[in-house]
Amino acid sequence: MKVKILGLSGSPRHGNTDIMVKESLEGADSTGDVETDFISVCDYDIRPCKSCYKCTHTNMEKLCVNPEVRKDDANMLFKRMLEADGWLVGVPVYFGSIPAQFKALIDRSMSVEMAGYGFRNKICGALTVAFDRNGGLERTIVDLQSWFLIHDMIPVSVGPERPTQGIACYWGAACLQGWPQQISSSNYEKSLEGVKEDVIGLEAARLLGKRVAELTKVIKAGFQEVKTVWPYKGV
Questions:
Q1: Are 173 and 208 in contact (CB under 8 A)?
Q2: Is CATH 3.40.50.300 the right assignment for the domain spanning 3-223?
Q3: Residue 162 has what pLDDT?
Q4: In a 3-state reduction of DSSP, which class is residue 137?
Q5: 3-state secondary structure 58-108
Q6: 175: part of which helix (H) or strand (E)?
Q7: What's the whole-model pTM score?
Q8: Is pLDDT at 235 greater than 50 in this prediction?
Q9: 42-46, 172-176, 180-184: which has the minimum mean pLDDT?
């Protein structure tokens, strides 16, 4: 059973979140029969949702139809997201939750819901990285999982493998960017790769990738045998 797993990095910059998500994709790839894709959202123009509700009359080809915002990259990214069987989504913690730049993509994904729940039954895992061990890691993971659940996706955690050094978080992969190293203009570049020092968090990222790949194969195989009325064709 071959599956496609998408790694989605939702940081406004290239650095720790990209590293985490790519590590998780390597974990998924290690299970075999996995094609991977990677998106760093900071490379694209994503504009905020206008709450116009024009997407209540859209479809999977059109998606967001608001002329004020649809010329950005959101629809293109949604189509790549629709092509994947499973996701590994990482964001940094910004003041205890998801950064605004990625939240814009989350809000705009209402068009996929309105077009017929196109993300339904995709397997997804959440990853996050913060400055401090108690700086909002678990809450940010839960916020991502809430997004998954609104789309009727299937969130998973790090799986049954528990290394002797611990797993750091039971709900997803949680890393630090280099604490207690203080962030300043003199060590900014080093801080962008600080997550590499968090061996526990990176191991959790790899295990999360394996778990997402494993369950994605199970669900995809199952739906070859089980009839379903989805995807939903109307709103």
A1: yes
A2: no
A3: 85
A4: helix
A5: CCCCCCCCCCCCCCCCHHHHHHHHHHCCEEEEEEECECCECCHHHHHHHHH
A6: strand 173-176
A7: 0.93
A8: no
A9: 180-184
Segment 5-14 shows an average pLDDT of: 97
Residue recorded with tokens 């196109």 = 118
Which one has a higher pLDDT value, 174 or 132?
A: 174
Tell me the pLDDT tens digit for each residue of 61-101.
999 999 999 999 999 999 999 999 999 999 999 999 999 99
Report in angstroms the alpha-carbon separations of 78 from 58, 113, 178, 180, 203: 14, 11, 32, 37, 29
Of the candidates 88, 64, 68, the one whose C-alpha atom is nearest the C-alpha of residue 6 is 88
For 179: left if phi > 0, alpha if psi spans -120 to 50, otherwise beta; the answer is beta
Six token digits for residue 56: 């209540």
